[in-house]
Each structure stands twice: as C-alpha cells, then as structure tokens.
Design goal:
Chains A, B: Keywords: Signal. The structure is a homodimer. Chain A is of the alpha/beta class and about 525 residues long. Chain A is about 25% helix and about 30% strand. Chain A has four domains: about 100 residues, Immunoglobulins (Immunoglobulin-like, Sandwich), CATH 2.60.40; about 150 residues, TIM Barrel; about 100 residues, no CATH class; about 110 residues, Immunoglobulin-like, CATH 2.60.40. In chain A, a hairpin with a 3-residue loop joins strand 26 and strand 27. Chain A is globular, with a radius of gyration of 25 Å. Chain A starts with a strand and ends with a helix. The C terminus of chain A is likely disordered.
Chain lengths: ~525, ~525
C-alpha cells in the first residue's frame, strides 16, 4: 500500500491542497498531518479527532501525536467517492480544519478488513473468503533489519496468512544486553526502569507500523497483541495503571486502526497478568470497541483462566487449549458453545526445546491442524526449533509448514460454508451436506472405510467420487469408482453396492468425497489436485 | 420424611396450636394450611406468602392454593431453634396470621439441599459430599401405582442418586388411549384440548409431590424438569404464554421448593420449544431465582442451541453433547470454560431401539461414564431397552448400572476435591496431586504403562501403591510393588527403578495410584476394594 499524507502547515496551504483533491484507494489510508504545539505533554493534554463523512457514512477516528510537533489523523475509507472531514480539538491549531479527499476503487490485492461472516467464518470486506492459517512471531518486530527481512522473505513462501505478534516487546535478557539490545521502547525512557508512562515514543510505533505494513504487503493479517504478561517485574509494561492502559489502547488504535489488516488481540495469556480481573478485561475490550471506528476483530488469548468469549465485544475465540486439538469433536462443541469462529491460537509448537510446549513433531502439529479444521475451526502454527521462529522469526525449519500449505489448499478448495457434519454423532467429518465430505482419520490406521454418509441432503442415486488424501505425504489419489448412494436408514446413506474404500492402514489419512452431478463441486477440487 | 401440617381453621384454633408449639426437623417441611375463600379463581387473584424468621435469617416463601378452599405455605427451615412466621395476603382470611414452630436437629439421612461447593463440586447443606450419579426417568411419575412401586424398588438397588424427571407429562398416545391413559393433568381440563391454563389442578401436583418424596426417602435428588417441548401441537403445555409460564413456575416453586431434594431443570431440550428465545429463558431463570427462597440448583438441558451456562443464575452445566464423553479431555475444558460443575445429563442410552440415541452397548455407556468422571465431570444414565426405563421406569435390564455402581464406589472413595490432572497436557487422569491418581485408558489396549506422574506435589522418595482396575469386569487388583518416585524433569516424576506397570492389553482398564505414606489415603480405598 501507499500512504497518502497531507501536511498542513498553515491555513493557506490547506486551501491549496484542498483544491488539488487527494486520492486514496478504498481501504487504504488517508493521513492528515497538522503542525501543532509541542509544549507541555501533547500525549496527555491534547484532544484531537476528526469526523469523516461520505453520504450517510460517518467515522470519527482519533488523532495522535507523532513527535516533532506533528499531529496526525489516519482514516481508512470504506466507500468510493468524496469524503469530507472536519477536525476537532481542544487546541486551536488542530481544531476545525476541514478538507476532503476522493476514494478510488480498492487496489487489486486489498480486499478490506476481515470480519466475522455467517457466524463461524471470516471474510474480507469485499466478501472474499478469508480462512485463517496463522503463525506465531511474537517478537519478530523487535529484531535487526536483516532478521526482519529474512522473516518477511520466509513468510512470502509460507502458507500463513495471519501473524500473531506483540505490540510491545517482552522483557528479555537479549533486549537489555548483547547484540539484540533494544534502544527504542513504546514509552520515553530506557530499560533502566525509568519509563515515563505519560509519554509515548513515536519512533517505536513508527517502526512497528512499518512491520505491520510489510505484512500487509504480503496479504498477511496482523493479530496485534496489545498487552502481555512477560515483564518479570522489570520494565513494568504489564503493570501499568488503568489510565495508562486506556491511553495506550487509544494511541495504538489511532495509529494502527486505519490499517486494513489489523486484528486486536487484547492480550496474550491474559490471566498471567495477575492483577487484572475479567472485569478489567471487559473494560479494555470496551475501550477498543469504543475507539476503533472500523470495529476490527477483537479477541483475547488465555492462560489459566479462560475469558468469557460469549461476551458481546468478543468477535471470535482465540483459545490456548492444546488438548482441544488432540482429540476429535471439541471444535464443533466450541462452535456450539460460543457461536463464533473458533481459532486455536496456540496448540503447542513444532520444536525440540526443553519446554514441553515446544516439543511437537511435525507430524503432531500437522495432526493438530487437521483436527482443528476437520472440526470447523482454525489453528495457528508455531515453531520452536533452533532458530526460535515464534520469538525471533528468521527461517522456518520445521516439517509442518509444507503440510499446512497442503491442508490450506484443500480447505480453500472446499465449499466456504463447510461445517462439522452430523456433529452430535460423527467426530471426524467436515463438509457440506449433499455436496462435499472430508473425513480425517488422524492417528487411526484403518485398512478400509465402509462408504457411509449422514443422511442430510442425500437422495438415492446421487453419485460421488472419492479421493484418498495422505495428509503427511501430501498426495491426493482418486479412487477409480463412482459411488452411488442408497438410503440405509434414518441416519445414513451407503454405497448401492455396499462398497468399502480401501485405505493403506497408516495414520494421517483422509478421504474426500465430492458429488459428481454438481458441476461446480466436481471441478472445484481439480485445481489443487494437480499441485 | 414426615410432613408437619398445621391446619388453621380459625383464629381461635390458631392460638391453641401456637401454644403447643410444633416441631419440625431441620431441612424438613413446615406446612401451614389456612382455610380461605373458594370464590373466583384462587390461582389468579390470591397473593399469599409468609415471612419466616429466625434470628437474622428471613425467608419469604409463597403459598399456593391446594383446592377445596385450602391455602398452604411450605417452608424448609435451615437452622435449629424457634422460627416465627407472619402471613401476608390480599385476602383477609389469609393475611396477618402469625405463629411459630421449633426446628429440631436434622433427621439422620437428611443432609439438606445440595448446592455448588468449591466451584466444580456439589455438597449437601451439612457439608456432606454429594457426587451426582444420575439416571433418567422422564415419565415415571405418570405411570400406574404398580409400575411406580417397581421403579422405586429398582432404584433402591441401583447406583443412582439423582433422577431427571418431567414435571409435566409429554404428549403421548399411551396417555390419551389405552391402559396408561392419564386422567389428571397440571391444568384443569382433559386431553381434549380444552385446558384452562388459568387454573391448576392440585390433584396432579399432590401426586407428583408423593413421587418426589418417595425419591427423597431413597436419598435421591430430583432434577425436576419444568418445561419440555414434547407436545407435538396437542396439549399445548409447551406453547403457554409468559404469564401462564410465570404462574406455573411460581406454583411449582411454592409446592416443591421446600423439599430438600429438589433441583430445577428449567427445560429439557429447551431449544426445541422453538418460540422461546434465550432471552425468554433468561427471564424464566430469573423468575425461579426470585421466587425460590432456598436457591435450589438451577440449570437447563439443551437441544440444538446451547444456553449460556456462564450466566449468573445458572448453577451448573446440564449438557446434552454426546461426543463430549466419547473422547478424553473435553470435561476439563468445559470446567475451565464454565467454572461450574459439569453434568453430562444426556450421553445417549444403553439400549436397542431404532433411534440412534438409544443404541449404546453397556460397555459404551460405561465407557462414557468413566470418560466423564475422569475429566472431573458427572454423568447421567439412561436405558432404552425393552422396558423403556427412561420413559416409564420399571426394571433395569442393562449391563451398565452395576458398572456405574462400581465406578461410584471408586469415585466416592477418592479425595473429594479431585480434579483433572495436568489438564493442558494429560487427557485421562484425575486425582489429587501428591496423593491420589486415577488413570483411565478407555478403548486403548496398552500392555504396559510407564510409571510417570505429573510433577506437582511430588518429591523424591515418595512412595505409592498401584492397583489395576478392570472397569468392565469390576475387579481391583493390587500390584505387588511399592513405587518410589524420582524427578525426571520439570514435568514428571517416574519410578526410581524406571518400572512399568503391566496391563492386560484389553480395553476399559484403569490404574489407581495411592500415596502410601499418607495414612488416610492408603486406607481410604481399602473399604470398597473388598466389595
């Protein structure tokens, strides 16, 4: 994306610029910059926002102080045509500034922000389907330029379209000493425990913005983690008072809210910030809800106390519960409990570290991914091999990413409204009744599968093709037979000839069954089969 | 229990009775009967309640019209000593009547009402542990006297201490025609669709009370199901308006609330009553919460829409989700989500009927029970063999009840605050760290188990005994070895000699591990081992 900046240093310039109307693509960022007063504490004493209007649409993003006497307001237009704005401030030089810009059609790869669609699913604002395949890169933004470039290059080849990352670095030895030493923090001050929580450090956020925009360029959503418990009593970023936290949230929203690829993750492992109760989190959710004009996705990632994802300001579930993807059937239950999209945002990592959360084999992590998606949910990857991907980024060395890529192609070629099938009785099937069925056998090693489908949507005589999927070796082999279904009883249809599908007796196999007499369904899976 | 009745036909008698003070045992029922006016509709136009006082304690149960001009108020005292009462009514003959009774110590088997204790557990009011092992007897109360006597005789021998039963019969052919024909309904009228919903039929409730009290005599809790969707457009009991439903709830509470063994199940399969929204159920929960002076347990049993059990008026989860007990690990997650006791109140039934919810083998139902309890949850039995136990009662013919009895003895001999162990990583263990461990292998058929316990609560040198439990054949065999633990890593302790426990390579096995150097733990399991 390009950033459009209007710098207004005086009313005179303003009128000039106003005549040569700026153009901003839909879901891109219009940025207004005003020269203001640097006196006092501009982070504390400045009320600054603007109303943007187009037809009946009205948005009121807050502005922010960006240092050097510059005040900015960012805005993401969501309709083509002329938008007019008028600033409001308690400071004369920032108040009552008006102007307009013209919103042009969205650029090719910008589908707008992601939101929840059809209760359990996600979609971009232009209705393009979005199916999250996340990865974890908590601290990648706080590494060297070289390392970050390497991370971005890796991501360009990886199957991931969402990154979970911290907005604020965790306390770590390497950030205080050694080559990875941090010099810029979100607040004015140094690591020597003398941060001035009343003053943000614009440079920190400017750098972070570049990283968020670099991911945006790769069409990767950013699940930006606002709070985290990882200070160990050192920097105090997890011990700030409510006033500071509120100000921090509004500042981050003012800076990042206009980026279409932003999601808000209120916290990582929130309950490890021990002094904050669920009622505190209710409050912070509501602050985000109130100040984000675009209502980006909002969730929170749990530690040992699961926040109530039913609460109205939570858009989707962002769960850390490893066992929920180790057995079948949990994700359908979670869908039914929460009636929201279920994202398993931490399911242990492929790795070989001493900590047991980073000891999965590639097979196991791939298995957990399949278990999530077969249950109508989503999962997030992580790697804790030598390079420490989840913390630092860099290169991926695991064996799961290519299998996740294989899974992603299968999922993206499936009907977008797939769901767990017959979910009170079946454990391992997802699909669309009468059209598409994906059965996954996980660690079971069946040598055959008696062709049988839940009755919903079926009629005698419907024809299906079957493909054997080896989820680990990444092969899809068609079975050379057309299956014609026949009602068995009130619950199931079987193959007319009572055929069984032969399976190789090894783990990690799946079966894909596609209706043959729906042209769109039969051809839908052709593309990725050839990969 | 005995029922104590004070019949006040005139103020004169009242003062006489008042001098010869009645005695009522703690958690038993004091019943005040007043002769009133029969004119008009006493169910609609009579406000009638009483305040009962003892020290600082005050309760205000509503009264009810019991037919024949008699108005009653029932009260369950929860403290010994003198209780005074004063009636309130909009009818002079029921208003301002005062009196007192003396509350004596509880009778031996009356431990008071059950409530939630320690977040995930239940206990009687006298702190006696209560671990639900329920069964389902939806319509037993609407059968012949002979059948009911048979059901009670069966229950006397059965392992069940909770019965789920309907307060109102479902529409069924047998209740309209044939020998099972019902003649008494909750409302005045007959099955010919002319019920007067403004008038209760006291006889119906008097009969139901006898059944509830018969179960009380067997120390069985009654999970009384207030609404149900099973009318198929016939009687209309599931289509009553809010005013009628509210009146019905208050009438049932007035009649049954003073019985210590009552639980309120707002509905069975609530979402099948299609016109009632979750907001409607919120309302009905709040009516029960408002009018029940004793705050008996409250939950609701779902169909295809799971009510939000996090809501504050829900005391425990009463779930129908079969797959949640088919795999390990779900109950611990449900505990963490809801932070309330988890009762799997419908997990399919042992049976051989055409409906697939009644087709479980005894092995499968036993397995599901174990899966529930190993996850720190509770389960409810049902049988759909020839006799139709879940509907009609009678005899039990299944193979699961005696296994459930075996399980119950094991559970009751375990530490009462057991919990799922290491629940983010382990799937199949419940117990108390450092003291007691129960591992269940379900359908897995291991031939050995490498002795390994989660590290919490352990120190090098602690000694344990191991018993092999065959959950199907109901045997408990001690392993002739003392296991001494030694730290393996940050997560586990293993046997010093790296011993493995030999298993018979068949399904449904469990291992019980008990600390030897805690005298109370070592002896705790002796009793039931000999059974």
């Amino acid at each position: 994306m390009k950033r459009y900046t209007v710098l207004l240093v005086a009313a005179f310039f303003f009128s000039v610029f106003s005549n040569a109307q700026e153009k901003v693509a839909k879901w891109d960022v219009f940025e207004l910059t005003l020269k203001g007063n640097e006196q006092g504490n501009p982070f504390i004493n400045t009320a600054f926002s603007a109303v943007f209007r187009h037809g009946n649409k009205e948005f009121q993003p807050e502005g922010f102080y960006d240092g050097n006497g510059l005040y900015k307001i960012r805005f993401m237009p969501n309709e083509e045509g002329e938008w007019k704005y008028l600033t409001k401030s308690n400071k004369a030089e920032l108040n009552n500034k008006s102007g307009s810009f013209y919103c042009t059609p969205a650029e090719r790869e910008n589908h707008g922000p992601v939101s929840v669609q059809n209760k359990y699913y996600f979609a971009f604002a232009d209705s393009t389907n979005y199916i999250p395949f996340g990865t974890t890169l908590y601290e990648w933004a706080f590494q060297s330029a070289e390392k970050k470039a390497q991370t971005l290059a890796t991501l360009q080849q990886a199957p991931f379209n969402k990154v979970r990352m911290l907005a604020v670095p965790p306390y770590h030895k390497r950030y205080v000493e050694g080559p990875g030493k941090l010099t810029v923090f979100p607040f004015v001050g140094t690591e020597k425990e003398n941060f001035d929580f009343s003053r943000f450090n614009p440079l920190f956020f400017q750098q972070l913005e570049k990283d968020v925009l670099a991911l945006q360029k790769l069409n990767i959503e950013v699940d930006l983690i606002l709070f985290r418990p990882y200070d160990g009593g050192k920097w105090g970023f997890d011990q700030m008072d409510r006033e500071t936290n509120d100000r921090f949230l509004r500042y981050v929203i003012a800076r990042f809210g206009a980026y279409h690829n932003i999601w808000w993750s209120l916290s990582n492992e929130n309950s490890f910030i021990k002094h904050l109760t669920d009622e505190d989190w209710d409050h912070y959710f509501q602050v985000v809800q109130q100040y984000d004009p675009y209502q980006h996705l909002r969730s929170i990632h749990n530690a040992d106390r699961i926040y109530d994802y039913k609460k109205p300001w939570v858009t989707h579930v962002s769960l850390q519960y490893y066992n929920a993807v180790r057995v079948f059937g949990v994700s359908p239950l979670l869908r039914d409990i929460y009636q929201k999209p279920i994202v398993h945002d931490e399911i242990n990592y492929e790795g070989n570290i001493e900590k047991r959360w980073g000891q999965l084999t590639g097979e196991e992590l791939t298995y957990r991914f399949w278990t999530a998606y077969i249950g109508g949910a989503y999962a997030t990857h992580g790697e804790a091999l030598e390079e420490g991907w989840i913390s630092l980024g860099g290169k991926l060395n695991g064996t799961s990413p290519q299998r996740i890529s294989f899974l992603r192609k299968i999922v993206e070629s499936a009907p977008k409204d797939w769901l767990p099938l017959d979910q009170y009785y079946l454990l391992n099937a997802v699909g669309k009744y009468g059209a598409y069925y994906l059965y996954y056998f996980g660690k079971e090693t069946p040598s055959e599968w008696a062709f049988s489908l839940p009755d919903e949507g079926l009629k005698d005589g419907m024809k299906f093709k079957v493909e054997l999927i080896d989820t680990w070796n990444m092969t899809i082999k068609p079975v050379d037979k057309v299956y014609e279904v026949q009602k068995l009883n009130n619950y199931a249809f079987i193959d007319k000839q009572k055929s069984k599908v032969k399976l190789p007796g090894k783990p990690y196999m799946a079966i894909r069954i596609t209706r043959l007499d729906i042209p769109t369904m039969a051809s839908r899976t052709e593309g990725e089969k050839k990969n």
